[in-house]
Amino acid sequence: MTENSLSGQVAVVTGGSSGIGREISRRFAAEGADVVVADLQAEPRTGGEPTHELIQAETDQQAVFVECDVTQQAHLDAMAEAAAELGGTDVLVNNAGIFRGEEFTEVTEAEFDQMMAVNVRGPYFATQAVIDQLLDGGGSVINLSSVAGLEGSGDFISYCTSKGAIRLMTYSLADKYGPEGVRVNAIHPGIIETSMVTDDVPIIGGESEEEFLQTVPLRRFGAVDDIADAAVYLASEMSGYVNGESLVVDGGMTST
Question: Coil, strand, or helix at residue 187?
Answer without folding.
Answer: strand
